[in-house]
Design brief:
Blueprint lengths: L1 H6 L4 H21 L1 H7 L4 H24 L4 H23 L1 E3 L2 E7 L4 E4 H19 L7 H19 L4 H17 L4 H24 L4 H19 L4 H13 L23 H34 L3 H25 L18 H36 L5 H7 L1
Antiparallel strand pairs: 1-2, 2-3
Helix pairs in contact: 2-4, 2-12, 4-14, 5-6, 5-7, 6-7, 6-8, 6-13, 7-8, 8-13, 11-12, 12-13, 13-14
GO molecular function: lipid-linked peptidoglycan transporter activity; peptidoglycan glycosyltransferase activity
Organism: Chitinophaga skermanii
Pfam families: FTSW_RODA_SPOVE (PF01098)
Length: about 400
């Protein structure tokens, strides 16, 4: 164990945040899985808790092994991952498991495990964009040589994710734009990208209606209409009403662990609406701690970005942290009624399999960059200290040489 701890490097604050969110996940999931355990596991909540514990433990192992890998290797993996993501997303749209008119999951036949291909695509895309940004810095102002090679892959992945999961596609596009902005892409190109994105969204709606893909479109329209008009007509969606009840019941200090009542009424309280359960049980104080944890993760990643001497590592750490924090903020915003209803989970906290695994891999890569930065700073510090330890030459020796 001591040997393992000695090999654990990287930003200690980020490690602390990972442990904190994992503990919160166990507490919140165990408190909110009563209805799920009753439907699927004959009321055996301990089985679901152990399952989540195993997933989180596997996530920690992934973080550890990923952070021990030299992050430059991920530059080579990025190309392969991006090329694999495209056929995987296509396969998911056609043959994926269908839930609520959306094909988001692929089931592996032998082990009967399902995972979201969008999780693979997001991770691969950010690694690829970070790689391209680092290679195109000398031509970043050139539209053809610098901008197009980065925006085309982003457009392809977002368009393939959008039919099944529009919220993920939009947040992915927003995260990529943030990374491009930090990568010194000209503002005029980013503004033109926003215009093209809006145009592409309108065309997608038109084409989808023309080919008869109206199920998901009507769902999106209903969610937006409910969000815009619900407060005026006092006709909020059921899950929004229950989330508001949970938040109102939590108050400042909450009802205490396991004392949530909204978990019996909220759809998916262990995933999409787990933040509402946290607020109900731990109050605004607990909710603020969760929010602060993600913001500190972003701040520490920005610190890594500033201190990393190599462009790829800097963009990689920043891009992965931005997408995790944006997803977390969007999840919180939906739970408190600031955004329309979506199916976004809270990273490292919501119950899940593939989402926890790929989130852990992203954090492991961030810590890999951090470990490299620490090693470089440590080598510089040792060199400086060794130079200071060298005694100055004696005065008589200087005179003799003269």
């Amino acid at each position: 164990m001591n040997k393992l701890l000695r090999k654990t490097q990287g930003d200690k604050v980020i490690w602390s945040i990972v442990i904190f969110l994992s503990v919160v996940s166990l507490l919140a999931v165990y408190s909110s899985i009563g209805s799920l355990a009753y439907r699927r596991y004959n009321g055996n909540t301990e089985f679901v808790l152990i399952k989540q514990l195993v997933v989180l433990g596997l996530g920690l192992l992934i973080i550890y092994f990923a952070h021990r890998v030299n992050y430059t290797i991920y530059s080579r993996v990025a190309q392969i991952g991006f090329l694999i993501s495209i056929p995987l997303l296509m396969y998911t749209l056609v043959f994926g498991s269908n839930v609520n008119d959306a094909s988001r999951w692929i089931k592996i036949p032998i082990i009967n495990l399902t995972f979201q291909t969008s999780d693979i695509a997001k991770l691969a895309l950010f690694m690829y964009v970070a790689r391209m940004l680092s290679k195109k810095q000398h031509v970043i102002n050139d539209f053809k040589k610098g901008f197009l090679p980065m925006i085309i892959p982003i457009g392809i992945i977002c368009m393939l994710i959008m039919p099944a999961n529009m919220s993920t596609a939009l947040l992915l596009g927003l995260s990529c734009m943030t990374l491009l902005f930090m990568g010194r892409v000209p503002i005029k190109y980013l503004l033109s990208l926003i215009g093209l994105g809006i145009l592409g969204l309108v065309m997608f709606f038109v084409i989808a209606k023309a080919v008869g893909f109206e199920g998901r479109i009507q769902t999106w329209i209903n969610r937006i209409e409910n969000f815009v008009t619900a407060k005026e007509h006092d006709d909020m969606p059921y899950q929004v009403q229950q989330a508001n009840i949970a938040i109102a019941g939590g108050g400042v200090i909450g009802k205490g662990p396991g004392n949530s009542t909204a978990k019996n009424f909220l759809p998916h309280p262990y995933s999409d609406y787990i933040y509402s359960i946290i607020i109900e049980e731990y109050g605004m104080f607990g909710a603020a701690l969760i929010l602060m944890a993600y913001l500190v993760l972003l701040l520490r990643s920005i610190r890594i970005f500033k201190n990393c001497p190599y462009a790829f590592g800097a963009f990689l750490a920043l891009g992965l942290s931005v997408t995790l924090v944006i997803q977390a903020l969007a999840h919180m915003a939906v739970n408190v009624g600031l955004f329309p209803v979506t199916g976004l989970t809270l990273p490292l906290v919501s119950m899940g399999g593939s989402s926890v695994i790929f989130t852990s891999l992203a954090i492991g890569i961030i810590l890999s960059v951090s470990r490299n930065v620490e090693n470089i700073e440590g080598a510089k510090k040792e060199k400086k200290e060794s130079e200071e330890d060298i005694p100055p030459p004696a005065t008589d020796q200087i005179q003799a040489v003269a």
